[in-house]
Amino acid sequence: MATNPTQLASHDHKLSKFEMIKKSLSGPGGTIVIGLALIIGTSAIWVGKMTFTSFNLYLVLGYLAIPLIIGIFASFSLLAGVVDLSIGAMVALSAVVFAYLCTGNVNEWLAAAITILVCLGFGAINGVAIVVFGANPIAATLGMLVGLRGLARIISQMRPGTGSSQDAISLMITGLNNFTEAQISFMPVLFIIALLLVFVTQGIISFTRGGRHVRAVGGDIVAARRAGLATERIKFFSLLASAFGASIGGMLYVGKLGGAPVTLGTNMEFTIYAALMIGGYSILRGGVGNPMGGFLGLLIIAVFANLVDNKGLDTRAADIFVGFLLLIIVFLDIRRGGDAFE
To answer: Where are its TM segments located (predicted)?
Structure first.
């Protein structure tokens, strides 16, 4: 019996739709949708109605606000094709330096300015090592991570009267604490600021020449050089942006925690990079990913951490979760060839 051409065309159309759906789910967008659905569904079943209460939503958004600010700035280095593993230690150094200066009766605003300059200085050292001397980014920033951790501990122990076992500088800055704890309805003010930053950065990356240049350098540095782009300068400034975000995050944590523990930011670089990779960024190649995807990736991790807290589980379960996520996302990144989340 002859096959109806119309039926064949319809069948091909259905196949093409199926292929489109399959491609969507295998990309970063699909990773986010599936991940959020699984985590929220698990929380709704295991924790119950408390998952969707305004207080619980406040906890989730409060958890991700500061890491989101740090991650948005760190994402510039990933887009430029540079992995900065020192951001967690930079957060600790920022907090300790800021607390040290404030407890030494330095004006808070001046202390903040000095702290930012100190962190930018170490970001510049990363830039010189990687851009000028051609050091491997992972090796260079890993060395910086270790060095900054040690420096933070030394500065913490230098605080007069604290003794040699000091692992934190206690400090309560009322105005900064009120700012970090402020909320509008169930939404922390810090989260609102972080979300606005996401939209602003999204616009910069998507619609400005500077954003396109960062993508171009990360995507194909040889082609970018041939096009006349200042590739070294772009990479250098992307590392400064990463350091700047970490410096802001460290000071915000001082206000939120009422002190500066030297362990602050431990493993934060892995959490943030896991979130960015869920959202479509790649540590294997630059030029892919966008801030909105990074935000949604961090939201997945925040919801899981909230689930762990609500069930009273060992908090190290969140680290195990992030570790498995990194393995899965690296595998998916290799399979999809670093396609952008669009």
So the answer is: 25-48, 55-79, 85-102, 109-135, 184-205, 236-255, 291-308, 320-338
Host domain of residue 188 = 52-336
- Alpha-carbon distance of 113 to 312, in angstroms, equals 40
The number of domains in the chain is 1
**214: closest CA among 187, 237, 196, 247?**
237
Ramachandran sector of residue 134 (left: φ over 0; alpha: ψ -120 to 50; beta: rest): left
What's the burial of 18, exposed, middle or buried (CB within 10 Å: 0-12/13-18/19+)?
exposed
Cα angle 97, 102, 104; round to 5 = 95
In a domain, 149, yes or no: yes
Reported as half-sphere exposure (CB side, CA atoms, 13 A), residue 307 has a value of 21
How many whole angstroms separate alpha carbon 135 and alpha carbon 210?
Answer: 25
Classify residue 278: in a domain, yes or no: yes
User: At 259, which helix (H) or strand (E)?
Assistant: strand 259-261
Is 311 part of a structural domain of the chain? yes
CATH code of the domain containing 114: 1.10.3470
| pLDDT per residue as tens digits for the range 40-67 | 887 888 777 887 888 889 999 999 999 9
Residue 312 makes CB contacts below 8 A (sequence gap 6+) with none
